[in-house]
Specification:
The protein is α/β, with parallel strands linked by helices. The protein is built from 8 helices and 4 strands. It has a 4-stranded parallel beta sheet. Helix 5 links the parallel strand 3 and strand 4. Helix 2 packs parallel to helix 4.
Length: about 180
């Protein structure tokens, strides 16, 4: 009669479309690790990535997960963790877009954040475009999604390293209230 814990993926647009179903699954089935590819806190970047989700979908889902986690703690239960995929350094992303993504990340409770720099993989529309324009620094032998390695020409990776190191925390905290629902 044990309810086994499990890890499964969800999308923020489907969570927002069926919040009661999602919440019941988390609360009643021991879905203890939830993987969601939020990718960005900017609608412009989400469109560039052809994500199919919006910032409002992401905000809704993060706030619901934060609420569920808070309830679990109040009940003396371990809150579910959510594996959050984040992409930085997408071509066309501005510093303000990156700040919004950082605000989104700062609003998450119980999250395991997996941050990656955009990688121009062949087969994706944006990846094919970057490769065709000669802007990719990646080769078929080094395709990976992790930060720390520069993947494209024309991206200010020094900015992203400073962002990840906390240099812009004051700027990020100025707009954090837009992400947090009490």
């Amino acid at each position: 009669n044990k309810i086994w814990p499990y890890w499964a993926a969800a999308r923020s647009d489907t969570v927002r479309k069926w919040p009661e179903l999602f919440e019941n699954l988390v609360r009643k089935t021991n879905w203890n690790t939830i993987s969601i590819g939020f990718e960005s806190g900017s609608d412009k970047v989400l469109k560039l990535l052809n994500k199919g989700c919006t910032v409002e979908d992401n905000k809704f889902t993060i706030n619901l997960l934060n609420k569920i986690g808070k309830d679990f703690v109040a009940e003396g239960r371990q809150p579910p963790k959510f594996w959050s995929n984040i992409i930085l350094a997408t071509p066309g992303e501005t510093q303000e877009d990156a700040f919004e993504t950082s605000r989104m990340m700062a609003s998450m409770k119980n999250a395991m954040q997996s941050v990656a720099y955009f990688a121009p993989y062949p087969g994706s529309a944006l990846g094919n475009q970057i490769i065709a324009e000669g802007k990719s620094l990646m080769t078929k032998d080094d395709y990976h999604r992790y930060p720390g390695v520069r993947k494209m020409k024309g991206i200010d990776y020094d900015f992203y390293e400073r962002l990840r190191a906390g240099y812009y925390n004051d700027e990020i905290s100025k707009g954090l209230h837009k992400w947090i629902q009490e």
